[in-house]
């Protein structure tokens, strides 16, 4: 490729070759000037490939100063905890060519960071780092003028180790930077103390806050270990500076004294010939002078004796790069530390020496002349000795003042965390805090307990609560600060304790100790550990206390003392604590899944935190990894190396119970594996030495193994050592449990060898497999042979793919040596195995399906019940029902929307078509075509413009995904069939509703209906001339209407018949019809005489046979009955339909008899049909008489009479009537809007989400009636259980009808519609305009029958009178029409969508538990048609023992299949009864054990009341205790139930929309 220079930097035409140094300089200059094309060329030709890492989180970026563009580009992502703990694929080692110099640091940084996270810190050694670049020949520029400039630019852009380290620390959030330092500080290298800012190259960042408090360990020759807290314990700082330029660099001289010749960045390190690092000038590197960092001479001659005196004081060496006179702020900062300056001078720099003295002072300063005789090294050593014996001032970071160019980097410490730390430094206080947390856990709370007052008495817990509420970055820092200090206190206490235990063990080994005292030693050791545990305070204890506070809050959330309290901040912090903690989980923190001290799950807290995770990642797919191993086998260490976790590590049990951590996956890895996150489960160490022989401890170990394996996709068994004894100890408990499980296991075995000799790797693996199979055979022999056949087979085939042999963590026994290279390689190998295991796994799951089952699994473990599969099956069954119900509701909403849209269109079509004179048939045809469009709902063609159909498609896709994951073909087929049938039913029912609505509109718009009104109006005018009072007028009007009714009906019917039969009937036949003379068909000649066959029939019989006449009449009567069943009026459509059907009957009979009827007979048959129908109408009262119509509208018409009496002018009267009907239409629209608003409000209530949440809310309210202490409520609540269906339905009806604010939507709609109508009427300039508007507006509402129809010529002359009358009516009566009349509103509980949410309310025959299925689920196909519930103690429904008559406390799912059941005169085994009479019910245990708990509590509370009502005996105490119905913790139960509602509340809830305009 060739590039023309003038395209980027100038007019001079020069052609340069790709990757040439001269081209690079041109592009750099042009890009710096803002040329975007030049920047693209830089990236294309000079930038190495950068490993893409797409985070699932939003990434904050650091804006980079232009000075660093060439190595970092314009922006760099901030390394936050959530990104640091995110997993990606293994990044291959970059091999950068020497020409790939643009953004080289940015390109290499992800690789470096991953290496550090996986404990390969060696990459930061200079000699290792240099291998990342290989030299490539480059054609130099032939332009001598620019050659020097090119070389200068290229040299400045070499890949530098210092630039990488400085950028790594500068771009990491403070807590992550501390983690990085904690990892790499085991490496004997120098670290940056001052570095330039990334976003401002003129400023420098002081990294001191990142290093403060870090532990530096130093091992002396006598075996003692010095632990030094960096920059907190006493230290002395030797500061090396220079002036001018040295031919032999200061850093080079210092490096010759160190363990590595590349300790400090210098011009002697590899590739230094290409130039100095970008960021080096003005930066300060430092290193602690210990055996690991010092050269042999420096250590043996200077520092060895110093440290062996037991000093905790450490010596640091700092190196300021660049001419010190250029960096005065740096000198001022270093001078404030307990420092001793070594100034390196070149001969002839005396004037600079004088200039330097005022900056650093004359005390604690030594000037070293650098000369060719090379005695500078000796002088440096001598001055090191001087420093050791000097007294330097103390240092406090709080007293540091920075110069203009310096500022302290962000610190993890804050006032909130420091306040708490100051308190907990007191040992007594630590014991008090643990006691307070235990009080929170064990508090038996009574009604009236003042939770907030209790919390106010615990200031330490309040302080921690305020820390949790800090902004996330500050929160993470504060917690890191607190954790660091707690760990430090724990380490001190643990150290003392271990020394005491070591002394005891030493005494135990002496020969003169008698046997009695020797046996006492283990007991004394246990007491020491117990003493340690009582005072040892860890951050998990605070998190545990936080969970307890939240649990208490949820249990008292309905207490008025909490709601009325002014402590809003405390309440908000507690209420939002799960949200705050979820933030921490996302950012790499752990959550205590199982409390190791109490072996309980804090269910309310756990559910709340998980729900907040689920809210942010609703479709989160997970892969769960647990790790099991003996105590101190290195489990946590391994996880920390694998995934950069922060699990605590030490020589004794650190993890208690089970801890859980999220590890989110980078996008590419996520796509590859099909999961979004790993969940790590770190378990408590098994077989703790202090617990050996304790049966309860062994039982707990078995439970931990069982539980961790059940909830995991992959289990790692961690084994320390290769002795058969160690192997037996861990495998005996883990394999023994796994064999018995009813789920397929998936394990990886990790064995850590105790020496560095891995040459015999094959032998080690072979020996392991031999021992493993030997232990397996023994374990299988001791296990129930009927269980776990699949897992036995799996374990017998364990091979090298399942086994990972690990080298020791460190190459030597040094206390502060870095992890070995081989250990890192083993970690990488295990990481790849885990990735592949996940990729091949078929058991990945959604987080939303995983966490709700955790408590149920643990309860099963506690009950030693291995039926985990049943728990999952029940959950899947219920989840399928929920998803089906949700989809059905969305389908219902979609049909509702389209129905309402079609209704609007039908109204418009009818109005427009009638005004155009279209026939009713044509109108009906158009509308029926519209109705047919429902057949496309809710399929693809509707989704482009319909939000409701899109929701259906989305939910249907979710259901399909769920069914696919279940991999149950039968279930999938049945579910799809159920949904298809439901769609068909919805379509049919909505279509029928539309057809009825269409006929109603057509009826209202047909002339007959409104002619009745007009006829009555004419009669009113006649009455008004003789009567004056409203009552008299009404009575007179009724009388005259009654008399005139027959004439009106006859006239109307005759007109319709004449119109239909005018071309068929003779005059005589019409006269006979009017006289209502029904023809006698048997006497009328029927046969048409044509041809010889006609004459033959004529002579044989001119009339039809009696049986033919009977058949004819029967068919006509059948048709009449069918037609009249569809209508209540005699209209033209009825006449036309009857005519058509009669013709069909005649044709059928003609064919049947093989004759042709004459016209006279056919006319008489039609007359017979019409008159027969008229008789049927009159006898059946199927049509509205005038009087019937008048009586129906009595109140309405009396209002019209009042208006008519008030206004003399008929048009004025008509105008007021029109205005009144417009107001009624407005009111109807507002009522409809209010009704829909209330329905949608109810559907959006959190506890209304589904039948399950409704039942939880119901029973919470029932329980509160009892808990509030009103004994009279006990009998009322008992009635609910004895009549569960009636109880919940009445409660539901009352509850939803009281749940809305009334009138708001009504007022809003009424005002809006009134303004619209008034403006439209005002704008009308003619009667025609008004008529069109009014009649169209009236068609938009149902139930208001009015049509404006006045002779136009009578209005035109007096239009203003008519127009003004409408306006006056609107304005004068507006107030009376804008008040909502409660009686006119339907209740939300009557709405079909609301009613369906309640679900099925069928109770279990035996226990009364309400079914949890959806409404109408018994019409489904397949398993979901069966009733399911959380079965409860049978006594709640009155079930009792036949002999003792005592109420039964047992729930249905716990009953033995052999139990004898007596019911309905039958006596059957329970197994038979379920199959014969109750096959439509499921009796498996429910996965929501908390619901079982509340029912047991109810039975405990109502036992005696129910027995009294049922004339039985109450269950005895033994029965109650046996079935878990005794001494239930109400507050704990209720807090979990409330949290279940909270969890469901945050899921997406769909409500119907107001679709019609």
Automatic annotation (TrEMBL):
Alphabetized PROSITE patterns for the sequence: G_VLIG
InterPro entries the UniProt entry points to: G_VLIG_dom, P-loop_NTPase, URGCP, VLIG_GTPase
VLIG-type G domain sequence ranges: 619-855
Matches recorded under Gene3D superfamilies: P-loop containing nucleotide triphosphate hydrolases (3.40.50.300)
GO molecular function, one term: GTP binding
Similarity section: Belongs to the TRAFAC class dynamin-like GTPase superfamily. Very large inducible GTPase (VLIG) family.
The name this protein goes by in its record: VLIG-type G domain-containing protein
Species in which this protein is naturally found: Gigaspora rosea
